[in-house]
């Protein structure tokens, strides 16, 4: 994690070697803390359920991993920013 974060800070690309898990592959190159993480997966489709899940995630200190379809990425980022705040 420390090396990947240092590379990210210096804009040096990190290319992970894919393995059996896309989650771990992406996490290894992210520069985010890897000592503890939670795989959330896909969020609920209904607005209220999705916001409830994001509120739960906002209270977690571990790195959170979400699967977000490309066409819903903008919506997710807006909702996450509103709930998580600027610190995350």
UniProtKB/TrEMBL annotation:
PANTHER family the record matches: RIBOSOMAL RNA SMALL SUBUNIT METHYLTRANSFERASE I (PTHR46111)
Organism: Solanum tuberosum
Gene it is expressed from: LOC102604808
GO molecular function annotation: methyltransferase activity
GO-annotated biological processes: rRNA processing
Keyword Secreted in annotation: no
Keywords: Cytoplasm, rRNA processing
Gene3D superfamilies, alphabetized: Methyltransferase, Cobalt-precorrin-4 Transmethylase, Domain 2
One Pfam family, short name: TP_methylase
Protein name: Uroporphyrin-III methyltransferase
Tetrapyrrole methylase domain span: 3-82
């Amino acid at each position: 994690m420390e090396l990947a974060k240092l590379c990210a800070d210096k804009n040096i690309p990190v290319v992970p070697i894919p393995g059996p898990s896309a989650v771990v592959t992406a996490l290894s190159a992210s520069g985010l803390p890897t000592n503890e993480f939670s795989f959330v997966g896909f969020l609920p489709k209904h607005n209220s359920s999705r916001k409830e899940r994001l509120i739960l995630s906002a209270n977690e200190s571990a790195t959170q991993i979400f699967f977000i379809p490309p066409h819903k990425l903008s919506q997710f980022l807006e909702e996450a920013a509103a709930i998580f705040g600027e610190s995350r």
